[in-house]
Amino acid sequence: MPAISGWQTRFLRQSTWFFSACLLLNGPARTEVPAAEVPAIDLTNAIVYRPPSLSKTERKAVDLLVDEVARRSQLRWEILDIWPLKVGRPVIAVGKANDLAGTSTLDGWLGQLAEAKGAEGYRVAVEPGGVLIAGNDSRGVLFGVGRLLRELRIDRGKVVVPGSFRIASAPATKLRGHQLGYRPKTNSYDAWDVDRWERYIRDMAIFGCNAIELVPPRSDDDADSPHFPRPPMAMMVEMSRLADEYGLDVWVWYPAMDADYSDPATVAFALREWSDVLGKLPRVDAVFVPGGDPGHTRPKFLMDLLEKQAATLRKLHPKLQMWVSPQSFDATWHEEFLSLVRAEPKWLDGIVFGPQVRVGLPELRQQIPSRYPIRNYPDITHTLKCQYPVPDWDVAFALTQDREVINPRPLGQAAIFRACRADSMGFLTYSEGCHDDVNKIVWSGLGWDPDASVLTILREYGRYFLGHQYADTFANGLLALERNWQGPLATNSEVERTLHRFQDMERAASPALLRNWRFQQALYRAYYDAALRDRLIVETATQREAYMWLGRAERIGSTLAIEGARQALRSDATNSASADRRGRVFELAEALFQSIGLQMSVGRYGAIALGRGTHLDTIDLPLNERPWLELKFAEIGKMANEGDRLKAIDAIVRRTDPGPGGFYDNLGELTRQPHLVRGMGFEADPDFRHSAVVGFARHLDGPLAWCRNAQSLYDQPLEMLYEGLDPESSYRLRVSYAGDSPKVPIGLEAEGTPIHPIQAKPDPVGPIEFELPLKLTEDGTLRLKWSAQPGRGGNGRGCHVTEVWLIRSNR
């Protein structure tokens, strides 16, 4: 192919500029030109020009650009406050558009790309002589710097940018932030020093985050952590300062923790305490008080408290906003809250929608006066027993990884974002550690541009944090990790392919990449998932063999049958499965503790409690029914009569058998719930307010089926539908209830006929049976409907059903 001449290059650039301007004038507030049209520009020896009129915040953005390039390339660009008249090196001009105007070169650059209107917007354009970063305002400068950093191709000693890269963009979402709580409950944040926090706040800003949310020293947490490098109050001050230096908003999540706010003395104490804490912070833009989780104050007294707090705190921070959520309220308190908000108190600035709100976001938007914006507070940090559980998660993951695992869910988070976007003005996500780092970036990216490709966001993530050579491989690896969690684990061959993908990266990785905590996290998950699947396959096979031994009991006797089953289930057979992969999991856990303070064990790393990211402590939990079978074997061994022993063994073997013409549904197992009415599903209903969702609870003293269940939330019923029943037969119903909320009463009806009233669940867990009236099945169909106690608050869980047998008997 012949070389492109000078006039052809100029023509291509002019055509590109015209096309970009037309798009901006007639289309969305964002345009890019494909980077392949013009050769890359070498910025290795670039000079950075910043006008002397830049503010401190804008100068901080310039420092960020130079520092982050130096960190990755070991090159430090020179910064000039005077435009260089003659220089043979590319110039990167950074500032607000009106500060950059005034020289012929910069005026020409500014004129080539129309402005993206709006606060925080920017223009970034690669020109023959360098790069333009022109912000609409101070934050626009910061976010323009971030956009360039995400596009640079940086190697040691070399920096390159695509030659035709140009973009003008402004954010679609007003508030884009993340909670960063320095407290013991988090699985990593409590180990971070000020330098680490500054790095992370920079990382968030580079991807478009414009706010952070802090947590006060007193919350529903321990007062101290063995990992704290500084006391909580001192670190809170530093984090507020850092956010202010970069021009980011500072929110404070401040739960009302005291027992009785109807007591004037309690209110006086709270006014002093909150003022003392927030008065020390250099910057506070807003305070968000959750109605519950934690805290449990009747709305009348809570709102009275917040009115007083708003008046007091605005003496310290005059522009402070006060926001509140109706989290954990039961139906009565929710209605009282609505009546108070509908009076439109002037001191209140907005409402927050978060976990444990009785109604969905669209309904809350309809209930709240339009003058109050709604801020979203999505839980991006947990996988189960949470606002947005992983749909149909395999029980092996739930038992071992629990609810705070390294959890990149890029496509899932995009679905959640898009389902919530229309009814909120923005978001500050709920996070309890760096394990949800990918999810933060996805929310930030979509918050800026809701139409952005998730794959593009992940490529920028890989390019910036790992290196340009990993942009595609790492992005696709993160998507593969999400696919690991889809469908039954034992048959998900994607898990093995995902591990091979990351092992290829691992073998070729530089020492710097192997020390990179973001790579370590993804690698850890790939090894953990694969090791878990290896063991699940083995333990499923050993359980199958054990049941085969038990099925021979009539022929070989109870003693030999039980001994054979025990030998099949022996732990040494399963412990040898994937030993190398399991060992690599522990090595990577140590590496993550050293690199980012991630605490994946209570005993090894001082995590606060099981379930708080402590996957190492649960990695070896049985994935089959061995614990329950050992308990049953011990019971059978105490029976004196062989006939009784054989009968007990037969009950184990036939436990799930519904008999001829009957049906057995294990409602927590995807392949055995054909009669469950699933509802809308995750894509349309990501918080499962109108859909059945698989839930989990550790009941290791029972069959594995008791560890998972189908559930519905709040007042939504859980339903099953049978069709094609024999109208000439009567049926008996057997049901087991087990879940993480055993004290929530539950009721059952069929075709409008009560089967049992709302009542306590059996304790201990065990099946209960009911004869169904003939009229319920005489048309060949049966619809069952379970409901938990109506009007309840809290997390809304409690309508749990684990197993259902429909047993036929002739008339």
Query: Got a strand count?
Result: 29
The whole-number mean of residue pLDDT values reads 93
- Main β-sheet description: 8 strands, parallel, barrel
Kindly name the structural category.
alpha/beta
Outline: globular
What is the helix tally?
26
As residue ranges, the low-confidence spans are: 1-36
| Strand portion | 15-25%
Strand order of the largest sheet: 11-12-13-14-15-16-17-18
Q: Measured on Cα atoms, how large is the radius of gyration?
A: 30 Å
Helix content, binned percent: 25-40%
Distance between the terminal alpha carbons, to the nearest Å?
86 Å
Descriptive keywords:
single chain, 811 residues, alpha/beta, eight-stranded parallel barrel, seven-stranded mixed sheet, globular, disordered N terminus
Describe this structure in words.
This protein is α/β, with parallel strands linked by helices and 811 residues long. It is 39% helix and 17% strand. It contains 26 helices and 29 strands. The strands form six sheets. The chain has an eight-stranded parallel beta barrel with strand order 11-12-13-14-15-16-17-18. A seven-stranded mixed beta sheet has the order 1-10-6-7-5-3-4, sandwiched between helices. Strands 19-29-23-26 form a four-stranded antiparallel beta sheet, with no helix packed on it. β11 (175-179), α6 (194-206) and β12 (211-214) form a beta-alpha-beta unit. α2 (56-73) runs parallel beside α5. It starts with 5 loop residues before the first helix and ends with a strand. Residues 1-36 have low confidence and may be disordered.
